[in-house]
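Protocol step 4 of 6: record predicted structures for both targets in the notebook before any analysis. Target 1:
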Amino acid sequence: MARVGLFANSPEPQWEMFRKTLRERGWVEGQNLVLEERWLMGDARRAAELAANLVGLNPDVLVASSSTQTEALRSLTRTIPIVFLLHADPVGAGHVASLARPGGNITGVSQLMTDVSAKMFQVLHEAVPRARRIGVLWNPTTPSHPPALKVIESSARQLGLLSVMAEAKSAEDLDAAFAAMVRERAEALLVVPSPLVFRERGRLVELCRAHRLPAMFGFRQNVEAGGLLSYGVDIQDQIARAAVYVDRVLRGAKPAELPVEQATKFELAINLKTAKALGLTLPQRVLLRADRLIE
């Protein structure tokens, strides 16, 4: 029996892609695979506890959905292989030496959020050109966020805009973060992707509506929940590719010698119903670039 420890945010339907890809490569739960799951549920404060629980099982491979889970696992083991699948910036967070040569017990598939953050900011500006003060909601417990903030602030300066920073470590911090941005007269919002943002997508939509803030997210699911815009990776594709890495490690490959794969599929999603509710007429050039229009 191979034992795989999965440390992710929540038991979303997309995880069936992980199981499906492993089955296609000969790993079947109950036959030759035991899959141990631990869910963070958007509360980074539980990361250390859940990581310790998984590492204590001494699995053959650990799977981390993002930089938050990767950091919690890395702090406990430098020998058990760790495969990440939605890491925003593995080099910037210090989790691998380089994309080509990770050099330790960690590798996987990166969404390169530090670079994507600049694109998110640019598209938000094109969609809401009248907004001059852009709120930025970020999570200080997410290791990949500090390097992303530097890129976002640089993008703001280049476009002649002002970024209004607001942090939220947990769901309980969201109300205060939005209140702070409103006090600073934010006219639009960029939400830096994190497990908290994915988990609390319903609450975030409610707050954006209440404060009439057009918002850019990193996950399509946030737009399906009612957010205005998202630009980011295809999560299903990331999950499937990470499962292939798990298969390779189970068959003897060393993480130190497996280059980090970079995301190749990105999509722009727009919720037209939300735009109408906000009284926004989105520029045609933005609509034409959308991969998914939600009506």
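Target 2:
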Amino acid sequence: MSNILIVGGSGFLGHYLIKQLKNKNNLYCYINRTLIKDFSLTTVKFNLRNKIKLKEFILKYKIDLIINLSSIASVDICEKFKKKAYKTHVIIPRILSKIGKLLNIKVVHISTDHLFNGKSRTSYSEKSAVNPLNYYAKTKKYSEKEISKSKKNLIIRTNFFGNNKINKNSFSDKIIINLKKKKNVHLWSDVYFSPMHIKYLCIVIEFLINKNEKGIYNISTKKISKYKLGVLIAKRLKLDFKKIIPTEFDPKKFIIRPKNMSLSNQRLLTKYPNLKKYLLLNSQINILKKNYK
């Protein structure tokens, strides 16, 4: 059993990852909001930039692992509030990485699939050149640079969906809620990604932690457009997929972002072929269907 400090544990991913890890580990969660009440956890509240306090806490509770989930997921908010985005995506990872390296503790950092310019026709590997298009992606690039200063750290690039009961609706929530209300749903047909259902994502994250993996790993499915995924979800849940309207990304209306964000999972599958069942797109849709029964 490990003692794990989770930074940013009150969001969508934090909720699921805590559920995945809590039975086999002692979890300490640094949060900026109240956690779901059914979690029996030790919560931490102090200035994270106070390195002395952070070090004292880690030593006192004999922390074995730090997981950084802190993130501002909205591209638009990051563009509008750049100082806040820089603090969250760069300063916090920098501090955690420095403390981790000083105390010989691994940091697991959740990154993004927005890091590239999107011009590739194929999915991006862990070795693909990073070329961010917006401020969100630029700060996430810098966060990876900070985390990479310790060779024992693990960076996970991914994108996820699922039934979000914590805060705002997820990609799949928005589709299903609107279709149930008989409303049209407009989705980009020229923007591609490779999303994971959040439950399977957390299973793979735990697996990599237990294997003491380091470096960069993509956790992803196959390349699919947001429109086609929406149609697939609607069909599987027996909703009116004809109400999903294909549209093209308009850079005049939205902050610029890559049209291809898909990530190759070949590194992960080559080393751990037993994970294949968790990385199939069909598996993600099947588990999503169970969530909305």
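Step 5 preliminary note on target 2. The domain at 1-293 is CATH 3.40.50.720 (Rossmann fold). The longest helix spans residues 82-103.
Proceed to step 6 after PI sign-off.
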